[in-house]
Design brief:
The complex is a heterodimer of chains A (440) and B (263).
Chain A lengths: L2 H15 L7 H17 L15 H4 L26 E7 L2 E2 L13 E5 H7 L1 H11 L6 H8 L3 E7 L11 E9 L5 E11 L4 E11 L2 E11 L4 E8 L3 E12 L4 E8 L2 E12 L5 E10 L4 E10 L5 E10 L4 E10 L7 E10 L5 E10 L5 E9 L3 H8 L5 H17 L5 H22 L1
Parallel strand pairs in A: 1-5, 4-6, 5-7, 6-8, 7-9, 8-10, 9-11, 10-12, 11-13, 12-14, 13-15, 14-16, 15-17, 16-18, 17-19
Antiparallel strand pairs in A: 1-2, 3-4
Chain B lengths: L7 E12 L2 E12 L3 E5 L6 H9 L4 E10 L2 E2 L5 H6 L2 E4 L6 E5 H15 L7 H14 L10 E2 L5 H15 L3 E5 L7 H14 L5 E5 L5 H4 L4 E6 L2 E6 L2 H9 L2 H13 L1
Helix pairs in contact in B: 5-6
Classes of the chains: A alpha/beta (440), B alpha/beta (263).
């Protein structure tokens, strides 16, 4: 990466990071290390193996290196329909946890929610420990930024018995990234700690306005027998989003993630799951739509560290225009992780000849009794299925819509809510319709 | 029933068609009157399925010359969905499965497409369910299959019944059954036949494409045609099917050889 590109970020990052003076040593050190590391590595170019398919040039050139300020009024957007669920609401506005707009009355005392800013002040040692565990130092540019600029976000702790009347506690997290006053970035850290046997359902959505970079990372810690069901919706019109999760699972825990994206300039969706206890399951699902010159990059790593764990990954993309979809999935079965069962698949429908899909399954297996499968398909809509529908009187246009919808809806079933699923499918479908109309 | 007296529904003249550059139909003539059941028999590779697919409007099948008139319309000018809207239905030899679309949603969408084409209002959910349930009974189909994805995980017999169910719901004028009997046990065969027989009326016609005679024990045809080398080489009454069953298709090869040396 060119030096001026690094300079576009290093000075602002260094300046911002000095705004945090009275910190405990551990946090201060972490911040300083991250500033130094970022100054060294900056945003990697295409030669870096992990970033080969993610064009960071436009981010690196610096328009968003300023930090977004609290917006005057929230973006007026239609939110996901979660009203049917007993759900708490957390609003994160340009990276700032908004106490005044969040509503935690729906969750019981078993769920502890605290802004990261207040945690930084009140329990800095604890925070520092959590960060060290969830985000070990590395040269990941967005993690470096998150550490260097660590300011706000949210800590969610879920104690067991969080089921009230059999209902799982649910939290709706809304990120607003509003660049109407000028481009900028927001760096948000979320920590999710689920105690033994506890369960939680998270519904996270992201809204953007203008030229913004959202850098969101989650450290998820699942104790024995716990269960996290997370749905993420990158709502239509998103700008540049890095969203990374590092998920550590103990024995018999279950993590399920349903990622959806209705269009964004650039998305890097990263999930790293570590199975530290046996009997874990991770389910990573994704349905995304890209149009124009949008770029969606899914990057998953499954570390199967111990025996008898399973994982299933299914990512489905619909690409039109000159958009690009990437799936890069690493399954790492470590020595001793016998009877691992890991399934991975990535299917892409190309609606235009200029769209492009890259699928890179990667397996590293150091145990002998394992089942690992991966498959990738890239193609147009199934001609036989199209003819079948048309032979029953359904027009070509409607048949195409039906097949695209079917393709996506198989993923959305996993949201566990028909209302939510229908809403998201409709939004993805609309993005496709607009693109198809523009091209026809 | 005699074809001549009836109003003609389908008139095929000199039809030549090819698939991927290979000519399959080589001058086929066929007339089907309203209310008639015609069986098309013949050895493998004779062009039976090609004929069915050409009539249904599959684009991979290229029509090189000839005409197909259907109720006064130039059928070859119509797209597959328009043909369906005009009342043509093909029961597929190999029905495709479509994960993610429920059978009920598929059927209702198709039925409404036909209704819109006829400037009728869309059917409401209650009337639709009532209609489908009665038709499912007719073809002896498990009601559970309605909520399942189209043909997804269906057994061979279930897929074929599903084809007949669609036929019964969509109520076509001309139904083309492309080897619907293949891979069916005798019970399923009876069900398929009963479905067709229940739909036989004066204004519905059927073309039954089959390799074997056994389906014709249950659906008695008005006319039987033997297709060979892309043309109809013999036509007759229902007894022709029995004759073919006895003699097989080997006599055709002899005829072909003669025709070949004569040309």
């Amino acid at each position: 990466m060119a030096t001026d590109a690094i300079d576009a970020w290093t000075d602002p990052v260094s300046t911002h990071s000095q705004g945090f003076q009275d910190e405990v040593l551990a946090l201060k050190q972490r911040r300083a290390d991250a500033v130094d590391k970022f100054a060294q590595v900056g945003f990697p170019g295409r030669k870096h193996e992990e970033w080969r398919y993610t064009p960071l040039k436009s981010i690196a050139s610096g328009p968003c290196s300023a930090l977004l300020e609290r917006s005057g009024s929230l973006l007026d957007r239609e939110l996901l329909p979660v009203d049917a669920e007993r759900v708490a609401r957390i609003v994160i506005d340009n990276g700032e946890y908004r106490d005044d707009l969040s509503d935690l009355s729906a969750v019981s005392d078993h769920v502890q929610v605290q802004s990261l800013a207040s945690m930084r002040r009140e329990h800095p040692e604890q925070l520092s420990e959590h960060l060290a565990r969830s985000f070990p130092a590395d040269d990941h540019p967005f993690h470096c930024l998150s550490d260097a600029l660590l300011d706000d976000g949210v800590f969610i702790g879920v104690a067991p018995m969080s089921d009230v009347d059999g209902e799982v506690a649910a939290i709706h997290i809304i990120h607003y990234l509003d660049g109407s006053k000028g481009p900028g970035s927001a760096h948000t850290t979320g920590l999710l700690h689920i105690a033994k046997g506890a369960r939680i359902r998270l519904i996270e959505e992201i809204h953007c306005q203008g030229e913004v970079l959202g850098n969101i990372r989650w450290g998820v810690d699942l104790a024995e027998g716990s269960d996290v069901h997370r749905i993420r919706a990158f709502r239509s019109g998103c700008a540049s989003i890095f969203h990374g999760s590092r998920v550590i699972q103990q024995q018999d825990s279950r993590f399920e993630d349903v990622f959806t994206c209705a269009g964004a300039d650039l998305v890097r969706n990263e999930i790293h799951v570590l199975h530290e206890g046996s009997g874990c399951h991770a389910e990573l699902l994704g349905a995304y739509v890209a149009c124009g010159s949008e770029h969606i990059d899914n990057h998953t790593t499954l570390d199967h560290l111990v025996e008898d764990c399973t994982s299933r990954e299914v990512y489905r993309g619909v690409l039109s225009g000159r958009s690009r979809g990437v799936f890069s999935g690493m399954i790492h079965v470590h020595e001793g992780a016998q009877r691992t069962d890991a399934v991975q698949s990535n299917d892409t429908i190309l609606l235009s000849g200029a769209a492009e899909a890259d699928s890179r399954p990667r397996l590293e297996i150091y145990a002998d009794d394992v089942k690992c499968t991966h498959g990738a398909t890239v193609g147009e809509l199934d001609e036989d299925a199209l003819f079948y529908l048309r032979s029953r009187g359904i027009s070509l246009g409607q048949a195409r819509r039906m097949l695209v919808r079917a393709f996506i809806s198989e993923i959305l079933v996993a949201t566990g809510s028909e209302v939510l699923s229908d809403f998201i499918i409709e939004e993805l479908q609309q993005a496709i319709d607009v693109a198809e109309e523009a091209s026809s | 029933m005699s074809g001549k007296k009836e109003k003609q529904m389908l008139e095929i003249k000199g039809l030549h068609a090819s698939v991927e550059g290979t000519e399959i139909l080589k001058g086929l003539d066929l007339e089907v009157g309203a209310g008639e059941v015609h069986a098309i028999m013949g050895p493998n590779g004779s062009g039976k399925s090609t004929l069915a697919n050409v009539l249904a409007g599959r684009e991979e099948y290229q029509v090189d010359s000839g005409t197909v008139k259907y109720n006064g319309l130039d059928l070859l000018e119509l797209a597959a969905d328009e043909r369906a809207c005009e009342g043509i239905f093909m029961a597929f030899q190999y029905p495709v499965s479509i994960p993610g679309i429920s059978n009920a949603y598929f059927l209702r969408t198709a039925l409404n497409a036909l209704r819109r084409y006829r400037d009728e209002s869309e059917i409401d959910a209650v009337d639709f369910l009532e209609l489908v349930r009665s038709r499912m009974e007719l073809v002896g189909m498990d009601q559970k299959l309605l909520q399942r994805a189209v043909n997804d995980g269906f057994s061979g017999g279930e897929k074929k019944r599903n084809e007949i169910l669609q036929m019964a719901v969509l109520d076509p004028k001309l139904s083309i059954l492309d080897e619907t009997d293949s891979g069916l046990d005798i019970d399923a065969l009876r069900v398929v036949a009963a479905g067709v027989n229940a739909l036989r009326t004066e204004d519905r016609s059927f073309i039954i494409v089959t390799h074997y005679q056994r389906l014709l024990d249950h659906i008695v045809p008005d006319r039987v045609h033997v297709l060979s080398g892309g043309r109809i080489v013999r036509s007759g009454g229902k007894d022709l099917a029995l004759e073919l069953e006895k003699e097989g298709y080997s006599w055709l090869e002899a005829d072909d050889a003669k025709a070949g040396s004569g040309a």
